[in-house]
Amino acid sequence: METLNFFFDNKHRPLRHAAHPRLVGVVSSGNLEVLIEPAPLNGGCEIEIRTAALGFGAIWQAVLEDFNERWQLADMRIAVNDMGATPAVVSLRLDQAVEAAINPASGARS
C-alpha cells in the first residue's frame, strides 16, 4: 500500500452545498472509492491517495492536476482508496464525487 498526499491552493470555489461528506465508488479490483468533505483549509483542496498500485505517483499527479484545473475546489478534503483503477476511472470517480457534493440527491452515500 502506498499513500500519496497532494495539496492545491485554490481559494476559488467552495462548494456551498457540500455541507456533509459524500462517498462514491467501491473499493474493488480496478475501482476506487472517493470520500469528499468540506474542511477549513484556507481555500485549499487536500487529497490523500491510498493505493495498492505502487510507483504511480507521477500519473496520480497528472490526473489530480487535471481534476484541479476542472474544479479548483476550495476548503475541501478528498480521500481516495484505490485498488488499481485506471486514470480514466479515477477522473470519473472524482468528478462523480464533486457532483454528489453539489447535488446531494444524486444517490451518493453520506
From TrEMBL:
It comes from the Bacteria. The modification O-(phosphoribosyl dephospho-coenzyme A)serine is found at residue 29. InterPro entries: Mal_deCO2ase/Cit_lyase_ACP, Malonate_deCO2ase_dsu. This is Malonate decarboxylase acyl carrier protein. GO terms for cellular component: cytoplasm. Its main location: cytoplasm. It is found in: Cytoplasm.
